[in-house]
Amino acid sequence: MKVEPATSPLLALLAGFISELRAAGLPVSLTENLDAMEAIQHIPIEDRDAFKYALAATLVKNHAHWRAFETVFEVYFSLRGAEYDLIDGEWPEGMDLSDFVDGLDGQQHRQGGGGGEAMSAEQLAEMLFQALMRGDDALMRAIARQAVQRYAGMEPGRPVGGTYYLYRTLRNLDLDGVLERLMDQARQDAPGDLTPLEERLERDEFEARVDQLRKEVEAEIRRRLVADRGVEAMAKTLRKPLPEDVDFMHASREEMMALRRAIYPLTRKLAVRLARKRRHGRKGPLDFRNTMRHSLSYGGVPAEPKFRYPRPAKPEIMVVADVSGSVAAFARFTLHLVYAISNQFSKVRSFVFIDGLDEVTSFFEGVDDIGEAVHRVNAEADVVWVDGHSDYGHAFEVFWERYGKDVGPKTTVMILGDARNNYHASQAWILKEIEHRARKVFWLNPEPGAYWDTGDSIVSEYGVHCDGVFEVRNLRQLEGFVENLV
Amino acid sequence: MSFSFADVDSVRKGLSDVQYLADEGIAGVVYLAERLQKPVLVEGPAGTGKTQLAKSVAEATGARLIRLQCYEGLDESKALYEWNYKKQLLRIQAERQGEDPEGDGMWQQIEDDLFSEEFLLTRPLLEAIRAAEPVVLLIDEVDRVEIETEALLLEILSDYQVSIPELGTVAASQIPLVFLTSNNTRELSEALKRRCLFLHIDYPDLDREKEIVLAKVPGVGESLADQVARIVRSVRQIELKKAPSVSETLDWARTLVLLGVEHIDADTAAETVNILLKYRSDIEKALKEFASSDEDFAAPVAAS
């Protein structure tokens, strides 16, 4: 019972869609491509959601890639929905807006159902408020459209990105202010005072709605841009790195949130994998003594050979992290990851510095929640000595003076930072001393390799005294490094 | 070949008849799985109803559910088939006592007998293949087996057949509907993923969770269900070690019904939150979060 085969323009579009997915970094194999083609023959083509899930189920095999998929999907198949006809300034049919606009401000509104254009900015704001208050999806979509039309100032062929339009639209809508108004309203409506719990629940609800509005606005801008520039060009500008490839140094606020969410499952996976590796280690060499002892019960015949199981020594880790400005995020993630697998090490000590240095090991001791501990490190550690600009030289000096004696042959020292020393003295001799005493010294640099040793970066001056200098710019690289470390 | 589901909506309806509320994505993928005759790999946080989905599909279609629980160290003899050695030994002994086997032909016959279906112990995978009636095969927590063992599954997942060296290939008489669940503790191999449809089941959104509570908890009122769903959504927004799962939401709702609570206030929530959250640090965090109304969600400010 097959639905009739998909028509060829659709196939062409799908081919473009898939090659865009590949360009965005999703591993789509040929089989999966064929599966997708087959899958869409089984679903009614006019059902956009079903179409989307059919493609997702066959093409996206990793949940972390879902966002990337969604973006590409929106671009490629956005204009095809009937409900999204691009007629400027027209309200969806059957929606009688003037009703409650009039009801609200008691003002005679001269339009019937059809003229969003004629409204004043205040009226639009009022409607936005009402729509959010009621959680009316259709109305929110209409308002999003109207707002983009009115505030974004989009002109055909203008070479600016969607973010610019988004910023302009949202600035005019003042969603933060609206949220506060909504909360005030909720407080008034409540019979008594809102308890903190109720207040929190109300706020979460409104935040969810505001967030949805923001998404609608984004979608609307994207739709218009696609209409203006065409699918391929748009997909290219929207292409974003996958979460595991997001650069620590340049992550946007939103990407940062995504990274923070990603690190939990990542650490868990890593811990499981490492524990497994340890348990399933290969058999070691013949244990002669043990074999001889067991041979006694066979009359001296070594019938049952005994093997020594490898017990790789657990390294002792010292993390020395630069927590200044741009590299702070990187240090946070690394600390998080190292502590999450701290049972793989015999001991973990951590130090943070900017131009002064402080030990923060105690923040992590007996703490369940590593994220919280990392947060405390940022707030409480005493890391500023003079002016709060990175001074690796002085930080190393302090480290050597206070903790140098603790560095021993079992210690692996990890230094995190971009080695941008603000032209201070490098004091590289300290690293040389540390290298002599420690088992290994690694330097992790969140900057791309091409920028090393440019400006005030002195990576190689330190690097010569390290057992390895690694570029660690994203979660993927970080995970790889930590796994090898154990 | 007849299908149990006519379209996506009938999947959703069938599942909701057995008290499983599927959203658009879940219903769509189940429908496709049957049409394309492909296994479904279900991934997502613990306690969101991954295993339940397979069970419910079996119930909705009236198929038999065969379950293979995966664990570290699972091997062929536990997953596919095994020869019944004891019975084989008995057979040989019985043969000896009866008559002294002299010629080679005699031995040949015994050997043929020994490796016949009579002495084959079927394990879940082979059983699912050989079943004559419709079957739903659930391979639970597939991420627990080692990556080498995963290869065992590949033949059955792509061709629905099992090769037994002594017997030949056993092909499926009917195509079972296969669900694999994974908690994502490790990355599954590309080969496995390629053969499956992928379904990520996340925590349900507010409305769906409310419906689930209403459907699954007897005696719960509309407003209580709504409150439960709202509070759980807020709790999930906090960064926790383990966010409350759907089953924990249901447990909580049941408790509240038993306690005769109709309206959840801060005190009730505080007293019963240990049903929702299982780590002490999580509980403390949640209580702290809800006790203070001033919200400080600003990202930690890094030193300059």
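Chain A has a mean pLDDT of 76.
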